[in-house]
Design brief:
This protein is of the alpha/beta class. It is built from 13 helices and 15 strands. The structure holds adenosine-5'-triphosphate (ATP) and magnesium ion.
Length: about 375
């Protein structure tokens, strides 16, 4: 009898012919998530078994597993042989000391000499005899003992299912570049795309010397928190201070934000191409601020040809905050910081800028030279 963690996968089931590929990505991700923790990972039909792990680190293992996308549920349990005595010994070990209970058996081995019902009633009967505090209640039991008779001569016993993170294995849906600020929204946007199987790299714009190193440190910390889900992480930073100065000096003040965002998107597209990312990801939500109107979105989309994914577009701030709290980025996001967007913030930003006016104002700037200069400020950090 051996302690194991049973890991069941989610939507990967649905992928028909691609299933082999999805399973490969998934197992690579499980290994990445468990890096540095002793374990063995075995695939059995429809699930993985984690064995030979350091039991004193079980909490750490479970905490890391809870962030791996593609995991439907997991259970700490016991793996044993498939004789009735062995199954009973395992059932006894996971059964509660007292209270109402039932036994639920799943039998993958259809050739096994007893049916699921027979196994449940035999094991339930033995438990009742040996644990006087137990009482059967098949409808609303306080506890359930789950048994799973596998095809390979083994059986599993466990008493609970933990919900996994769901979604698709990261890496099974290509790569995207997340424009990450120090705010609440963009980390949530990155999380949601990673959940749908996208590998995510991070791009942050700062305005040194107007913003200081603490802004960068904060984004590094957010990227690190997200890397628990994305499993790898590269953060690239670019300095847009001179772009902001030039916009401020030469262009209509109400267009400051609009123009800066067009620069950000152009720069992001260049970085995405360099990093083989297939799309940009932002934390924009319709109507949240002046630049996030449909006109604002149109004006930034107009300067790039890569798709821009905005997974939060229909979310209320409260919903976004709810997710940020759940995934553990909220506390860091609300620490005070200087965002480059707030430097030179106009008093009345245009909410419905006309493209012809934007282009006229942008014509006052040497766009290629400013892009070149910002790209030359590139710094890269490996997040792990
Ligand atoms: P967030 O909470 O993500 O900062 P926000 O509500 O403050 O978003 P904006 O500041 O308008 O909204 O930014 C919209 C999106 O643009 C952000 O979600 C992010 O994807 C991107 N963005 C904004 N500032 C930066 C920055 N300094 N570096 C990289 N991306 C940025
Ligand atoms: Mg912001």
């Amino acid at each position: 009898m051996e302690k194991v963690i049973i890991i069941r996968y989610a939507e990967i089931h649905l992928k028909g012919k691609n299933r082999g590929y999805f399973e490969h990505v998934f197992s690579v991700n499980l290994e990445r998530a468990l890096k540095g923790l002793r374990h063995e990972l075995h695939r059995t039909s429809g699930r993985y078994l984690l064995a030979k792990f350091d039991e004193s680190r079980t909490d750490e293992i479970l905490s890391r597993l809870s962030r791996v996308f593609g995991v439907h549920s997991y259970s700490v349990g016991l793996c044993t042989g498939n004789s009735m005595d062995e199954i009973y010994e395992a059932a006894l070990a996971v059964a509660p000391a007292a209270g109402t209970f039932k036994v639920v058996t799943h039998r993958a081995d259809k050739k096994y000499s007893m049916t699921s019902m027979e196994i449940s009633s035999e094991i339930g009967g033995r438990l009742l005899k040996d644990r006087k505090g137990l009482k059967v209640d098949v409808h609303t039991p306080q506890h359930t003992v789950y048994l799973d008779v596998r095809e390979n001569g083994t059986a599993l016993a466990f008493s609970a299912f933990e919900h996994g993170a769901g979604g698709m294995p990261v890496g099974s849906s290509g790569k995207g570049l997340l424009l990450i600020s120090g705010g609440i929204d963009s980390p949530v946007a990155g999380y949601l795309m990673a959940k749908r199987g996208m590998s995510v790299e991070f791009l942050h714009f700062h305005s040194y010397p107007y913003t200081n190193d603490s802004a960068k440190e904060k984004v590094k910390e957010l990227a690190k928190l997200l890397s628990g889900y994305t499993l790898t992480g590269k953060l690239i930073t670019l300095n847009v201070a001179h772009i902001q100065e030039e916009i401020h000096r030469r262009c209509a003040p109400e267009l400051n934000v609009t123009l800066l965002r067009r620069f950000m998107f152009r720069l992001a597209e260049k970085i995405a191409e360099d990093r083989s990312a297939k799309c940009l990801i932002t934390g924009e939500s319709l109507g949240q601020v002046a630049s996030q109107t449909i006109e604002g979105i149109t004006s930034s989309n107009a300067v790039v040809s890569l798709p821009v994914l905005r997974p939060l577009i229909g979310f209320d701030k409260e919903e976004i905050i709810g997710i940020a709290k759940k995934i553990g980025t909220f506390e860091t996001s609300v620490l005070p910081f200087e965002d480059c967007c707030t430097v030179f913030l106009p008093e009345f930003p245009a909410t419905r800028p006309k493209l012809s006016f934007i282009e006229e104002e942008e014509g006052k700037l040497d766009v290629p030279a400013l892009l070149e200069e910002a790209l030359s400020s590139r710094e890269e950090f490996l997040i792990s």
